[in-house]
Design a protein that fits this description.
The structure is a homodimer. With about 140 residues, chain A is α+β, with helices and mostly antiparallel strands. In chain A, strands 1-3-4-5-2 form a five-stranded antiparallel β-sheet, with helices on one face. In chain A, about 45% of the residues are buried. At the A-B interface, helix 1, helix 3 and strand 2 of A face helix 1, helix 3 and strand 2 of B.
């Protein structure tokens, strides 16, 4: 786990991770959230809506933003203040592994907070979502 | 599960759910995401940062936005396009159950998309996060 202090955070500093999304993760996300929507659980329904496979929950792929901030950028002293996500393409299990990459684009000295611009890509390098996060640094 | 068609979506239409957050959910979220940040797993560390309890992952409480759209608003024909979340207060296990409530505030006929304004509150009625989601309706 990284342990960046606020003074270590510079514009352009980056971090990221690669994740293998599995059916078990999808099943567990379904069980935890109660989101039983058939787009995520029923292949025939997903096909009837024009998708070739069941769609992985967007909020599951977004869950790794927690890891991006909490383990990598800044790591140990992280507290997420704000998250903005734009979903650009559906994610399928066959798109796995996905990569979650972020970079510091703004630093707010008053709030000891910085802004990460992030992209989530599938194994083909297609951007599936992108956005920004504001993250506080609790290094006092 | 609701099954609203795009033509059923009106400004002011609401939906929501109440969720009991458990230690098991937190442990499972940790395992899936790999976010081993001690703010969420180590009481002494959380106390050293000024919190009375371990902090529940913000992206775990946000996961129920998937359920809000996929089961309730609009339900079956849901596809989330965009999510914007502002975290206002940390969530602790003792804050549970939390409520996730949304209301339609804008409708886009061109994209067959609508905007939900949502609030997540703890059991005391304190707002812990709020934001907006843009959701598409796949009813064709």
């Amino acid at each position: 786990m990284n342990d960046y202090k606020f003074s270590d955070i510079k514009i352009g500093l980056g971090g990221g991770l690669s994740v293998n999304i599995t059916q078990e993760m999808v099943d567990t996300f379904c069980k935890i959230t109660g989101d039983i929507n058939p787009l995520h659980t029923d292949l025939e329904f997903a096909k009837s809506k024009g998708f070739q496979e069941k769609v992985v929950y967007g909020m599951l792929t977004s869950s790794f933003l927690s890891t991006l901030a909490g383990v990598y950028l800044p790591g140990k002293n992280s507290l997420i203040h704000e998250v903005n996500i734009l979903f650009k393409k559906p994610v399928f299990l066959s798109d796995s592994p996905i990569s979650i990459e972020g970079k510091v684009i703004e630093i707010n000295e008053i709030f000891k907070q910085f802004t990460i611009k992030f992209e989530i890509k599938n194994k083909n390098g297609d951007k599936v979502s992108r956005g920004t996060m504001k993250v506080g640094v609790l290094d006092e």
